[in-house]
What we know:
It is elongated and about 85 Å long. It has four helices and five strands, in the order H-H-E-H-E-E-E-E-H. 47% of the residues lie in helices and 21% in strands. Mean pLDDT is 76; it is low at 30-37. The protein has helices at residues 2-35, 39-52, 65-78, 140-155; strands at residues 57-61, 85-87, 92-97, 106-116, 119-128. The chain folds into two domains: 1-35; 37-155, START domain (Alpha-D-Glucose-1,6-Bisphosphate, Chain A, domain 4). Strands 1-5-4-3-2 form a five-stranded antiparallel β-sheet. The protein is of the alpha+beta class and 167 residues long.
Amino acid sequence: xxxxxxxxxxRFAAMGGYxxxxxxxxxxxxxxxxxxxxxxxLSREVIKARESGKEGVAKVxxxxxxxxxxxxxxxxxxxxxxxxxxxxxxxxxxxxxxMKMVAFGSVMGVWIEPVDADNTKITVITMRRVKNDIFTKxxxxxxxxxxxxxxxxxKSGKQLPVVSPVK
Length: 167
């Protein structure tokens, strides 16, 4: 009888540890979900920020609109972003990066506007899923660094590679 009681107590204690772990995971996921903005929310915020004209980084490059579009798409491929939603009639594309290890990801909008036949203005706006996430690596600076690589490749007469070139 005592052995059965001991075995039952052991099983109950083991299940209690399991339940504590399960409850902890559940609470952590609720905490993270409440602090993370969805892709649709951030996409709307990025577009609103662009419309307000108060956010974003803009630079002009000596490439045509078509070349700039291809380079931006290549940068997103090199940086392994999620699906790119292209809106060529409105001169912009939006993509995101998902959660990876300790990074929560971000949503990035890129506006591609011709200045003249040979120059194009690129405006980039990034919103992080978690505001104080310091580990998400795709931001305006990263985008422009890679975009300049793409401009140099195109200007040298080469095709943009599918695989990320060395930085």
